[in-house]
Specification:
Number of strands: 6
Number of helices: 9
Distance between the termini: 19 Å
Radius of gyration: 21 Å
Shape: globular
Strand order of the largest sheet: 1-4
Largest sheet: 2 strands, parallel
């Protein structure tokens, strides 16, 4: 017989969303908005810089060839791919710098009622993990990303856009989603099929 205090139904995922992302530790109410603003800033920075670099390249192209609105419209897919590549490279540089300084924890136990500031002080790698997962959500929502991520030329670039590092063997390719490339080793000639999700982390909430 299961004790009454343990016989609880699993949380409705549709109502609670991703527990990993929405779980809040006790702490000052101001830390939530500040953390969210910092995350948004880290997400927007490479987007804006990539757009500025792409606009600069387009302006340089206009100096060596006749440029018109209809030509820009025709070449817009090419311009987008250039912007996407620049964004992925910039994201990789940012995430790599954060991850080298504060790597993701391979294991982290947080006692109940722990103050959020104590977690930040003890292990900034937790923040690195949150930043990486939110950047993954952004990257996965970009048009054309699933197509280029299956190309060997772009595969590692896409993974590094939201992960501090990636261990990929020769000829490895993925049509699925890899949540933690820095905690996952992909061997030679490994093919991850479409729709597959590889996750190297879990969250256990205990009383």
């Amino acid at each position: 017989m299961i004790p009454a205090n343990l016989a609880k139904p699993p949380p409705n995922r549709g109502e609670t969303g991703d527990l990993r992302m929405r779980h809040r530790l006790p702490g000052s109410s101001i830390l939530g908005p500040v953390s969210d603003l910092a995350t948004v800033a880290l997400l927007l920075a490479p987007l804006v810089v990539a757009a500025a670099i792409t606009a600069g390249l387009v302006a340089l192209a206009g100096r060596v060839m006749a440029w018109s609105w209809y030509l820009a419209l025709v070449l817009s897919p090419v311009i987008y791919v250039v912007w996407l590549w620049v964004f992925l490279v910039l994201s990789g540089l940012i995430v790599g710098a954060i991850g080298r300084r504060h790597p993701k924890p391979r294991f982290r136990a947080i006692p109940g009622q722990t103050h959020v500031r104590a977690v930040l002080k003890d292990d900034l790698g937790v923040i690195t993990a949150i930043v990486c997962y939110r950047r993954l959500a952004l990257v996965q929502g970009l048009p054309f990303i699933h197509v280029i991520s299956a190309m060997p030329l772009f595969f590692r670039t896409v993974l590094r856009a939201y992960s501090p590092s990636a261990t990929i063997g020769h000829g490895g390719v993925s049509w699925g989603v890899i949540y933690d490339p820095d905690l996952t080793s992909i061997g030679d000639q490994v093919v991850i099929g479409g729709g597959a999700v590889v996750v190297a982390h879990s969250l256990s909430m205990r009383p």
